[in-house]
Amino acid sequence: MHEDSLNRFGIPRRVAQDDEMDGWFEVDDEVVDHAEAAYQRWQRDTKHPEPGVVPRVINTKPHGDAPRPRDRPARGSLADHTLGDQPDTSRLVEGALGD
Fold it and tell me: Where is the region Disordered (predicted)?
């Protein structure tokens, strides 16, 4: 019941839908969900996936301090958080095609 009382941002619906709250919410875009970003890049770049493909996000970072992939910007400005024309080198669907 508690989860049903919250909107998708975790704000109680009674607060989020209160007319007195109009204008009192802002978007904070400082936190980046990198797994979601990888999935969104895959969706953008894969217009027609094979039938039955179940995309899943996997962590491909090697143990230790591996360098950041060159095609991904370091976290910084808001422009870095957009889905630009950078190639996606993630192995997002590894294992989803039946290996």
Answer: 42-99
